[in-house]
Every structure is written in structure tokens, then in C-alpha cells.
Amino acid sequence: MTLEENIQQILSDNRVDYDVVAHEPVYTNPAMAEALQVNESETVKSLVLNTKEGDMIVMVLPGDRRVDWKQVAKAAGSKKVSFAKPEDVKDKVGCDVGCVPPFGHLTPMAIYMDKALVEMRYIYFNPGVHDKSYKVSGEALNALCRPVYV
Fold first, then answer.
1. Whole-angstrom distance, CA of residue 58 vs CA of residue 95
2. For the chain, what are the domain ranges?
């Protein structure tokens, strides 16, 4: 089962309404927002991070926001967090950096989220591929991720 198929199964199992939007391949949130003709804040940025203690976590935030490294480290109970290596992301998540979904990873990882996403009517995320985006409600994203808020 591909990562995208896994995400579709999770959405189906949880009876989540979603739309699939095909577009040209995108590798950044600004490009994704342009392709979808939405505000960048409506796109999801899912970053795979390593803690100093050796854990791999996912930080999910609106596409127009930057990571507050100290807040994420504090929430994760770590002294420091940093970007995971692209090859490690592919092994743990099942896709390349730049299209990491906020949930449904091959290996379960703790998910940390900016609460602003929960308050969004709709958000768009890549399902592990660069040429599609899935549209779900912020409320559904929250239920699927079961995150720790940062």
C-alpha cells in the first residue's frame, strides 16, 4: 500500500469528507498555494524533526508560518530539535521531503501542531506526492492527527 493509499484508507475509516485536487508538481507551500489559488495559510507544512534525544517527530503548521524551534523543543520535552535528514524522512514517512502529510506515516511518530490549523474551515495538504493536494476541514485534521499543540 502506498502512502497515499494509506491516507485514503484512514480518511475512509474515519468517515472524513475530503476533496482531491490534482495540480502541477509543487515543492514549496507558496507554490502549492498558487497552484490551488488559496492563501498560503490554508496550506499545511509538515516538517519531520529530530530531537536531541534521538526521537523523530512531525511539526504541522500553516504554510505561511515558521517553526519556533524553542517552543517545539519544549513541547517535545527536548533540549533541541533540528530537521531530519531527507533519507531518514523517506524511510520513516514513506515519501520525499516537500510532500510529507500531517498523518498516515509508515512509522508512527508524535505529531505537534500549531492550533491555528484547527480553527481553519479547510486546509490543504500533500498526501505524500507532489502533484495532488487533499482538502479537509481543520477539525478533521485535528481528529486525525491527535496532536500536542505548540
1. 14
2. 3-142
Angstrom distance (rounded) from CA 74 to CA 68 = 10
Q: Which residues pair with 123 in a beta bridge?
A: 136
pLDDT single digits (tens) 97-149: 999 999 999 889 999 999 999 999 999 999 999 999 999 999 999 999 999 99
Tell me the β-bridge partners of 58: 48, 111
Q: What share of the chain is helix, strand, coil (3-state, %, to 5)?
A: 30, 25, 40
3-142, what's its fold? YbaK protein (3.90.960)
pTM metric for this prediction:
0.94
CB 117 within 8 A of CB 61: yes
The Cα 7–Cα 20 span in angstroms is 12
- What torsion, rounded to 10 degrees, do the Cα atoms 28, 57, 8, 66 define? -30
